[in-house]
Amino acid sequence: MKRIILISILCVLGIKGYCQLLEDKTNVYFGYQNGFYLGNELFNSNGTISPSFYSNLKSNNGLTIKYLTNQTPNLGLGFKLGFLTSTNWQSSNYISYNGSSSSSIKLQPVFQMHTKSNKNGLYNCMKLYGEISPVFEFSMISIRNNLFDIIETEKKYNTFSINNLFYGLEVGVGCEYAFTNKIGAYIDMSMQEGFINAPLFLDSNFTLLGFNIGVRINLSKVKRFNY
Amino acid sequence: MTLHMKKHIILSFLLLVLSSCMDNIYPPLIITGAVTNIDKDGAMFHSKITDLGIKDIIEFGFVWDTIHNPTIEKAEKYVFHQQAKIGNYEAKISTSLIPLKMYYVRTFIRNEKVTTYGEETSFLSKGGKSPEILSISPVMGNLGGTLVIVGKYFSTRSSVIKINQISATIIKSNQDSVYVKVPSTLARKTSAVTLVSLNQLVVAKDSFTLISPIITNFETKRGTYGDEVIITGKNFLENPSTVRVYFDKAIANYQIIDDKMIKAIVPNELDNANCSIAVVMNNQKTESVDRYSLLPIEISDFSPKTALTGGTITISGKNFSPVIPNNKVYIGGVLAKSVSVSRNTLTVTLSLQDTAVYDSRNATLKVDVAGNIRTFNDKLLINDKWFRRANTPVEFGVGHSSCPTCPIIYYDNSLANCFVVSKIAYIGLNNKKDFWAYDTDKNTWRKLKDFPGIPRMYGTGFVSGNKIYFGTGLSNYYSNLQTSINDWWEYDISTNSWLQKNNFPVATYNSIGFNDNDGCFMSNGYKYTYNKSPAYYTFFLQALKYNPENDSWSNQVIGSWDDYTFSSMNFWIPCKSVGNEVYVNLGIREVYRYTDRIYIINSKNNTMKSIADYPMNLNCETISFYINGKVFIRKKAIDEYSSSSAFYYYDDINNKWKPAQTDVYSLLRYGIAFEVDNIGFVGLGNSNQMYEFDPNR
Question: Exposed, middle or buried: residue A154 (CB in 10 Å: 0-12, 13-18, 19+)?
Fold first, then answer.
């Protein structure tokens, strides 16, 4: 997967363009996200070792919407709204979170550094960028209770559902390509470090390596006045 | 409002909305960590509390067992002593870990409503440590109190605490302390405290001591039932629920005034006139040094002065015990039954003679109240016609059985021979060598010189002067080798010696020996002649008369009679010899009529006189005595006590047999009877009892 993405990026960079496009002012992006959580099968929380919740979630898919306004030719500011669903908890030695899932909504202010738009040439059509964004994530976790044996006569705890708000930081790199003044596409790779505090697992942080692909729609161009 | 400002407001609102959707999980949550650092001393257990729930945490820790899903109730348990907070916890566990065993571990956390176990993890043990007791607290305490054993590596599941080998109920326990209830059955003052776990026994270096009451004094020291006594000392309030106050063995009502004073009431049940006072607390008994004295009993009179057994005697006096049985009245050595008591009178009932053996008809009255004994100078006359005499000595009780190997089942005084000389009856020789003298005057038994001949049954004899003659009978009676014998012996009363004489002319048994004024006779049958017309039989009673002077026997017919049939003449029974007369039974008068003919034979002039038939059939075990000029005869001694088993006496004026009152309570079957000075005696048989019968009372 990584290899395919890398080759794709190189191919795009090698395209010679004659686009004659105007410089973008405001863009909106719609994309699909896929990724995986980095980390071991077990999580060590200050000596207490237990199966990790996030590292063993094997299926992670989502959508992203990003709104970006270029403040300068190299700097864009905006925000991103992401939806991610993580399922298929698997561990070779444990069943602790079998059947559990996590759905999250992420709201991220985005700071983007990107290449300057040229009047012509490759960088007239293509833009390389790097992003950094703090993450405010609202997570809805559903955990099938294999983990706790709760002795209470009044209530049964077959499944736990918790909603959690946590924070993180995401960095990413990518490129976008304008097919017309209005329409383009983008592809990028991001790494999110999340910091979480949930009572149902030991994980206090996770690392999500994400891959995004999508379309770009330009809303406005930089106005130029020739006197 | 700028565009940036709007953005910030929207973003803040969105976060606020999302935050309000946060859920709470109400049970406390704890996660089990993997077991690490496994070695021969134990293993490191890990956990993390991730949620405390909404109620206060009571305890949290680990449970482990060799089976899946260990629980607080059944598995070993380790409890953290610190307050529960969200975070990581670990503990080195060494308790009850057996090498090479797989253990399953869960963390737990609980509040008053919920217990949450974390996921189970497992490990292969390499061993653990033995329990250690560091201290016990308190070292002095009370029954039912709590004793804390402090130490290390205690098993919460298998620890047994014993105080002086008595298992104590565990109130609660954890890995380093066990709370037990001091068992209420603990009696020893100072006891070792031991912990037993998995066959390991650990003894605490300190001992546990029960707090004892202390008595320093009491007042007053002399009084009577119901009086108040103040006991002073200390520790009375240490464990008041276990306090008991005793006067001797009688428990007293009491009131604990304070830790140093008890007010007690002299109990009615007190049965010791000079006793100590004891306070028991924590099963520890402390007795007073001084003794408490009851006021002595005073007796003034009793009435009536003559009574029958079963009758009632009233004793007047004072200071009787309010508890009726505690007033013991001994009449002729026999404890009478106290039936009522008042302040100044005591009423008792004379025991019946089925169990009671009074030492004399003129009985001494002795009153015993709590050990204070008083005896009346006057005697009580027990005036029953039948009066029980002294039992035979225990040697008589060496019973025989129906076979040599059968167990002893009853007294073997059956069919004893009895010879009366002066006021002494000489008894025995029934298949034994034993020979006893019963002194009717002194009411005593005395063993005589053993019979030197072969033991036999159905031997016979008679008395001549100061000598007893005895012989014949069946030897080897309890075997298949029964043999009639004819040896003849003389017992000299004055020298207590036996001498063998010339044999009886024939070997025989169950013969009839009697002596009258005409001499000594042994008869073993009769002969008869038959007259055809009219048809009748003439029977001649044969006897051998013994001459003690020259130790010789001579034949003599001592009587004859005619009879219609031969078949009714079964046997003859000499019932009693009186002077020259012998009362004999000649069997059934007529077949099926069931009365027996009685004749009086006069051995001097060889005459026979028929008298009234005896009311029932007699047989060879008939007993009799002769008192006040009357012959009393009883069939087979006493089979049972009933009116139909009474003695009958012969009323010679009216020529009738009349029943006599017969109050004999024991089975005297195959017993003996004799008379001394117009008093009849009946006894032995299948018992060890002897009765006198005095019809003049």
Answer: exposed
